[in-house]
Amino acid sequence: MANVAMGQFSDDGQSWWDGTTWVAIAQIVLPRLPPTKIEQSGKLETARSRLRKRGWLNWANEFSLAGLTAAVLFRPAERALRDYRLWTLEQLALATAYLLGANEPMLAGEATIMPPEYIGDSSKRDLAVVVTAAHVLIFRIDSFDGQPRWIALVARPTDVRMRVLPLIESLFRGPALVVSRGNEQWIIRGNPGVLNPKPVLDAWRTGSAQRLFK
User: Fold this and answer.
1) How many Cβ atoms from other residues are within 10 Å of residue 144's Cβ?
2) Residue from 83, 53, 73 nearest 194 by CA
3) Strand, coil or helix: what is 192?
4) For the segment 35-60, what is each residue's pLDDT rounded down to a tens digit?
5) Distance between CA atoms of 148 and 88, rounded to whole angstroms?
6) Of 6, 27, 75, 132, whose CB count within 10 A is highest?
7) Any residues with CB less than 8 A from the CB of 20 and at least 6 apart, and which?
8) Residue 145: pLDDT band by 50, 70, 90 thresholds?
9) What average pLDDT does the chain have?
């Protein structure tokens, strides 16, 4: 394996080549990412200010909530949450480039972007999913600075399943994208009007189809 180029995962998705040696996925800690366009434009600080004014910026853990309540209570913060989501997607793209290089960019991503005062199951906290041409990655977000920091999953598109919560479930739990592999499951929750799982699902289906018919 000495000739493996930097920016590559092992076939089983358990290790990553850092240019010198293979590192177990569980041991990877992503470094501080450079400022994104949203940060440089000042939109991120504006979004944070709007959320602080409503008492919704409290980076604690995770949340579960009734979708109908969310649709009513969170509407005034929707623009701020959308900007926050764009910032997170920019960070996910940078994190993906750090791990895989320019030859395998992020095609689509989604993250848990909701006012975090609605705390729920900590096993599903602060998650994000990324789809590339060859991989599906689940990142864990650092609650201190909101950055993708750790990796929970690396898999081929054909090794995972994705679905959107059915309407009846989303009414009581809020909309969500569910990623699963075997008995493992990760739930990417979002706010109505902010979460947009379609690009992720489309990229995943395309990647799965390409691998199946190679």
Assistant:
1) 8
2) 83
3) coil
4) 999 899 998 888 777 766 655 444 33
5) 8
6) 132
7) none
8) confident
9) 80
CA 22, 26, 31, 34 torsion-angle sign = positive
DSSP, collapsed to helix, strand or coil, labels residue 56 as coil
Long-range contacts of 194-197 (CB under 8 A, 24+ apart): 194/78, 194/81, 194/82, 194/85, 194/113, 194/114, 195/110, 195/113, 196/110, 197/110, 197/162, 197/164
Closest CA to 114 of 169, 172, 178, 195: 195
pLDDT band at residue 173 using 50, 70 and 90 as cut-offs = low
Q: How many other CB atoms sit within 10 Å of the CB of residue 17?
A: 18
DSSP output for 74-90: SGGGHHHHHHHHHHHHH
The CA–CA distances, whole Å, from 119 to 32, 55, 124, 129, 176 equal 26, 14, 11, 20, 15
First to last CA, the chain: 24
Tokens of 44: 């991120």
Q: Which of 94, 79, 80, 82 is nearest to 30 (CA)?
A: 94
Structure tokens at 2: 């000495």
